[in-house]
Each structure stands twice: as C-alpha cells, then as structure tokens.
Amino acid sequence: MKKLVLLSLFLPLCLNAQLFNYKDYWKNRRPYSDYWQQDVHYTIDAIIDDDKDEITGEETLEYFNNSPDALTKVYFHLYQNAFQPGSYAHALNEVNKEVSHFGQYEAQKMGTLITEFKVNDVVVSYKIDNTLLIADLPVALASGASVVFKIKFKTYWDNGSMRRRFKTFKPDGVNKHFDGVHWYPRICVYDRKFGWTTDQHLGKEFYGDYGVFDVNLTFPSNYIVEATGKLMNENIVLPNDLRNKIDINNYSKPATDKSQKSVAGRVPTGYTYTIPRDGVKTWKYHAENVHDFAFTADPTYRIGESQWNGVRCIALAQEQNAAYWYPTANFIAKVIEVYSTDIGMYGYPKIVAADARDGMEYPMLTLDGGNWPGHQYVIAHEIGHNWFYGMIGNNETYRAMLDEGFTQFLTSWSIKKINNIPMHANSYDEQAVYNGYLNDAINHNDATLNTHSDDFSSALGHGGGYRHVYYKTATMLYNLQYVLGDELFLNSMTHYFNKWKFAHPYPEDFRQSIIEYSKVDLNWFFDQWMETTKSLDYKIVNFKKLKNKSNDGKFYYAITLKRKGDMQMPIDLSISDKNGKKYEYLIPNTYFAKNDGRTVLKTWIGWGLLNKTYTDTIALDDKLLSIEIDSSNRLADIYRLDNVMKKHKYKLPYKVNFNKGFAPVSSFNHQNFTWQPDLWFNAVDGVKAGINTHFEYAKVKHVLDFTIWYNTGLGAEKQYDIDVRDPFSYKLVYRNLVGHNAYIFWDTRFLDGLFYDNLGFEKSFGKNKMVFRYKNISMPKSKSVYWPYSENVNRENKTNSSINIDYQRNYKYKHGNGIINSTLRGNGLSKDFAYGSWKVEVINHNHIGKLDIHTRWFFQHIEGSSIPEEVMLNLAGANMEDLLESKFTRSRGFIPQEWLGYGTSTNHFQMVG
After folding, report:
1. Which residue from 465, 602, 590 is spatially nearest to 519, judged by alpha carbons?
2. Which residue in 885, 868, 879 sits closest to 903, CA to CA?
C-alpha cells in the first residue's frame, strides 16, 4: 500500500516534468527564488458547424497546483456569456444608456453552455454567475498536486451589437469567416498576489495561466485555418498542391506600366481559386508556453510566408485582398527582427497576421485589417503584443498598462526603425504616442494608470480615460528613456523582459526590475507617472549676461527656468551661441545623471511648492543666441511655447501650410499656421476677395482665425455704390484654453454692415457647459442696406448689447440622445435698447428600430420697453440674430430678395432655427 501511495504521488510529478520540459519553462528561470505560478495542459477537440455557427467541444484540463496553498474551489471563465441579456456587460451598457441588440442565440442566453463537468472523472455540481463557472472540489487540491477536469461544452457565434472579438461574417458576401477567440472554458488564474482572480468579463482584457495546448479543430474541408501553436498535420490538411494554389504570389505581378495603379510596385493578376468542399478536415495544433488558444478560419484565406531566425512569418489574406497583402509577410519578419533584437528574443515557432477586419492579439496569432501599406501600424501593434501580453503574461484585466501601453511604445519603435525614421525628434512619435496623452494632459483630463481596466469612468470601449493605458504609458516609457539615456533604458527594458518572460508580473514588478538593473532610484518617476495625473510644464524664464571677473574671454550667463507643472523631471538644455557653436547641458533632479556626454549643471531638487525656479551659471565662447528645453522632443511638456527662446523672445517654430480642407495635425512641438484664399459675394459689396489665416497651438491654445476681405463692388446691384459699401471687411475669432475644460473667447467682426463682438468664458462640467459672455451688435449709419430682412432704418446707429448666461446639457437615454440649451439675457452697457429674455431649446434624436425621429422644442419669453428686432421670433425658422451667423443669410444677394421677408408671415426660404 505504501508503495502504491508513493507511486500515485510520484506519477503526477513525472507527467509534469514531461509536459513542461520546453525551453524557457518558468521553473528553470524564476524571477526570484520563491516565485511560483500554476501550470495547465489543455486538450480540446472541437467541431465547428458553419451552418449553425456553433462549436461542440470536449476539453480535458490537467491543472497543476504549484502554489503553497490547498485549493478547495475552482473558477472558470465563460467569456461569451458576457454578450446576452442580463449580463454584467449588458448592465454596464444599460447604465451608460447604450442600446444593446441581441442575436438569436444571445437572446436565449446561449453563449457558452456546459453540458458536462467532471473532476477526476467524478461528475461535480457547479453554478454559473454570468461569465464565471464556480465549483467546489470534491477533495482539496494540495500544494504540489494536480487535478483533471473534463468539460463538454457548446459555444455559439452571434452578431449582436455588443462589441466582441469572437465573430463571424461574410467578407465576400458568400463565404463565412470565423474568428475563434475566448471560446472554451478557461480556468481563472490563481496567483501569488490575489489568489483566485475572478473578474467578470465586461468586454476588455484577459489573464491566463501558461502551459501546453493540444487542440484539434474540425472544419468543413474548404476552410483554411490558422491558430495558436504548431500545425502538427500540415502535410495532410495543407498538402503541397493545395498550398501552391492558394499562395499569395498567384494574385499579383510586377507592374510594367507607370499608369497602372500598383501596390508596392505590383498589380492584381485576376487569378482566383475555389477550394472544394468534400467532407471535413481536422487541423491539429500543439502549443507550449502559451496562456490562451485562438484560431481563425476562412475558405478565401490565401497564404504568404517569410521567415526570420527560424520563425515562420505568415500572412493570411482574404482572396479579394490577396493582391494587396503581397509585402506583408516580409514586413512581419522585419517586425519580429526589431522586437527580438531590441527587446528580447521571440519565443515561439511562428507568428501569423490574418486579414480579419480586426485589431487583436493572441499567442502566435494576430487578427488585423486593412491592406498594404495602411495595415503596417495595426500589424506592428498586434505582433508587439506577443511580447507584452504573450511572453509577458501580466494580469491585463487588473492593469492594462503593462500590455497595451508597452505595445503602443513598441509599435512606434518598430515603424521608425523599419522606415528609417529618426529615433528622436521625429513627428511620428508625436502622432502615434504623445498627442494621445498630451491632448488630454494639457486640459488636465488624463487618467491614473494604476486603475483597473474596467474602472475608467464609463468603462465602455476606450472611453473614460482608458485610452491612456495606451498613450500615457507609451509616453511614460519615452520619458523613462529620456531620464536614463538610450543605452541604459534599452538594457533595463531587456532585463525586465528576460526576467519576467513567461511569468506574471504586476506594475510593481516592472518598477523594481528597472530600478534593479539601472541601480537608479526611480520611485519619484514611477510615482508621478503611474499613481497621479500630474503634468509636465517647464518654462525658460530668461538668461542674463554676467560680468566676466576672471577675464578668460568667456561669456557667462545666468540661466533661469521655472517648473509650472506639478511633475518634476531632469532637464536637457541645448544652447547655441552667435558663432553657431552648440552646447548640451543636463540639469539633474536627483544625484543621478545619464551618461550621454552632456555637461552636468547643479542639481535641481524640487517638487510641489519646493523650488519652483532654478538658476545656474554657464560659460560660452560667444554671446548666447538661443536656448531650448529638450530638443529631442521626448519630454512630455504640455506647453512648449515657452521652451524655446531666442534673443529673449519665445521662438517655437511655425509650420506653415496651405489649407487643403482639413484641420492641421495637432502638435506640441510647433505652432500651426494655415492660409487659404476666401471669395464671397453679396448684393452690396459685390465680389469679396479675401484671405483666411489660422493660427493655433495644440488645437486648444491661442487659436486665432482671421479673415480680411477687399470688397470689389464687382457684380453689386447698381443702387449700392461706393458711398454705402464698406471697402474692407474682417472677422477675427480667438479661443484659448485656460483651465480644465475652461476657455476664454472673443469673436469680433466688421462684416456685412455690422460691428459685432461676442466675448466671454466657458466651462464644461461633465455633460454640462456654462458660458458667460458679453455681446454687441451695432449697425453704423446707412448700413441697413445690407440687412436682408427689413427696411427699418431705426436700427441704424444703435447697439444691441447684452449680458448672457448660457447653459447646455447633453444627455442620453435608452433609445436616443438629446441636448438642452438655455440662455438668460439682460441689458448690456448700451442704452439704445432695454429688454431681457429667457430662451430654452430641447433637441432630441430618437432611434426606434430602423426609424430615426428628430424633435425640437423651443420656448422664448422677452420683456422690455425697447426690443431689437433681430432677437424677436419669426413665424417660421430662425430669428434674425441666428440668420446673422450664416454667411448665406446675413446680407442681401445670396438668396433672391423676393424670397425673403419674415416677421408674422412666411416666405419661400426658411433657415431652420
């Protein structure tokens, strides 16, 4: 009996050793001596019915308890149960006033159904709470022991409105495409930090145990399948004859004529092939050191392949797109090379990028969209996840920053390297990384990174600040590079990757790993970036020439800087003298200084209210010409307008463009200036020839739009001569962010016979906005000729001035959304008119089935002894004050005069109010 007991204890250990003897198994490379994580071995047989859109599966899971604890319960994820009525994800949609539509299976709560659940061949009862299966183990699972679960299940594809990755569609209108992700009962992670991690699935992130997957996928024979792991029977399911017929090379050829519309120098051949449907095929996959298994299948998939360092790099394109995926496999290989060389070696035998109308990552498999060259970004990003998600198995449900943000950083890194873009001071980083963070940070509206991925405000999609797990994290990593210097940063990142490869780190493990390798106290850095919403804002105050007491021929200057933001960082200073010589300085904020050849100035110790300003002395060979903070553009300063100074004036450069009809790209590294000609016409001025100019910084600071016209008189009606006509007109609109969702503004014009001013302050509070403004509308003498609505000369030489308080509220409800606008108005400084008013407007957009119903309710009450006619209501359409805001209706000539005329009657032309 004793021998039998010993054998029963020894046998699981032997099986464990056989299963987990692959390269980089975690027990052979623990991050620290007493680290542990659980092991899993999934064996799944799945039959896919493409008529019923269902998977019938049998799963055997060997689960090895490497923890020091005895386990009495077990939890499994049933992710597809999130997309059904009454689910937690549905409740989240409901509270956000999002309408959810359910497919036929979803409406019946048929996501993943369990038909049998056994523990060591004993049927065990269980309960299901939406996306979690919970069961008591018949016998506690001791530390070092293992258990076998056998589960029979069905999982159903459906096409409800809730966002999910497990989906089916017809890319060509005929053939069905299937993405099989999060489709099988997956055991929850029991880890060293939390024990069981039992988050309900709300549509975002995932967390799984590393181990071995052996999966058989049975499809109708016309499907081409790819999945996590090595295809074990490739010669059977994808024989050479079939492989050659569906090779991506068949679908394009070199372009021979410059007039041909080519992609990467190639044009489509018109080749097509249909795979016969004559039974079924079983695709057998084996994967090691992975924490999930996903597949994609499509009868129209066509294959391109390259390789790097023994890694198969596979591009799967739908046949209709195959000609435009020809370069993709080679691009995949380049991405793998960059990440492996710079961050750490890829640990799997293959990587697949599949044409699947998506952007999602799984071990060895990425689901992507688009065609060459536009899909380079999404492919580089999703492949990057195989480093920071795939091989670094962090709990992304708890903290998404460690995979999404790190991958966003990698995406920019690889695109720059592959396309020979400079690594520093480039515009690509600005658009791919920085602006996503800085556009919110300048408005003090970013998010704390150490936040649960389902707890960012609304928690839907990328809203509520969730996008900052991408952009703020990636910006943080570039700023860490700025602090440490290029070489130490990259070596520290490689150390983190190698230390935690195929293990489960948390944010504190990343912090410690970087500090451990760099030997630099960076707690101040990580505390600011990960635990707060502090922002970076430095300013060059001035530089002052000092007397040279040593008579050494040098030019001495006292340089003064100011820290306006709450975040502190070291400062790189680039200085030029009048002879063109450049000097590079570093102002450390601790007693560490990066080793990049800069002259180190005295340390600036300061945070909060401590030492807001800094002054030190430098010596130059000639007079100081210019000074700049961080010429590499990595420091995430939210306001660089005061970071560059030349001859004692701030000189952040302008980027001048002709306006081609779309807004300039937001930038924090230069000011935007656009211009365009502007032509218009009215019956009094005739043709108005003008020029429009637009200035802005980061789209929210010092936004100035100015147009000036010369009124030529060409085409003007004869009775309007030069004595009546204005020779010039102008319009100027200024807007500037001054606080969190707070702006000052000024709109001033002399245009179409009116002087107009509207200036004030606006502030938004969530769904509410308040505006306080002063408004003037004046009509100089003899200018009523411009007025298209009345011949009332009593309006001339009078000013309608008013103080206005506007309130606006946006709201959502189950089948629509709406907005309330309200204005309270009183007399301003002018005594030409005396009145007060209150106006309320309610606009609703209702979506009922396929119907869109739009409604507008309006109320206005005016009292006074003298009321300007432009504020009074017309019987139909907008009042005159609203009509003045449109260039089509504010003056005579654009609309035939006989069509106009309002007040107590209607006419042919109506502008909606």
Report:
1. 590
2. 879
Nearest partner of 475 among 517, 446, 503, 499, judged by Cα: 446
What value does the mean pLDDT take over residues 100-128? Answer: 96
Tokens 């200035």 — which residue?
Answer: 695
pLDDT digits (tens, 9 = 90+) for 558-601: 999 999 999 999 999 999 999 999 999 999 999 999 999 999 99
The CA-atom distances, in angstroms, between 434 and each of 378, 430, 438, 439 are: 18, 5, 6, 8
Spatial CB neighbours of 64, under 8 Å, sequence gap ≥ 6 = 12, 16, 38, 39, 40, 41, 145, 146
pLDDT in tens, 349-361: 999 999 999 999 9
Distance CA 133, CA 142 (A): 21
DSSP for 649-668?
EE-PPEEEEE--SSPPPP-S
**Contacting residues for 361 by C-beta, under 8 A, at least 6 apart:** 367, 382, 383, 385, 386, 389, 390, 407
Burial 20-29 (b: 16+ CB within 10 A, else e): beeebbbeee
Question: In sequence order, what are the residues at sequence separation of 6 or more whose Cβ sits closer than 8 angstroms to the Cβ of residue 688?
Answer: 678, 679, 680, 681, 682, 709, 710, 711, 712, 729
pLDDT in tens, 503-556: 999 999 999 999 999 999 999 999 999 999 999 999 999 999 999 888 899 999
Q: Please, what is the average pLDDT of the chain?
A: 93
Element (H, E) at 10: helix 2-19
Task: Please determine, for residue 5, whether its predicted confidence score (pLDDT) is greater than 60.
Answer: no
**Amino acid symbol at 248:** I
User: What confidence category does residue 894 fall into, taking pLDDT thresholds of 50, 70 and 90?
Assistant: confident
Task: Give backbone dihedrals phi and psi of 91, rounded to 5 degrees, phi first.
Answer: -60, -35
How far apart CA 749 and CA 153 sit, in angstroms, is 70
- DSSP designation for 201: P
- 3-state SS assignment for residue 106: helix
Q: Give the start-end residues of each E strand in 606-741.
A: 613-620, 624-629, 644-646, 649-650, 654-658, 671-682, 686-697, 701-711, 728-739
H helices of 123-276, in order, are: 234-237, 240-245
Q: Please tell me whether residue 562 adopts helix, strand or coil conformation.
A: strand
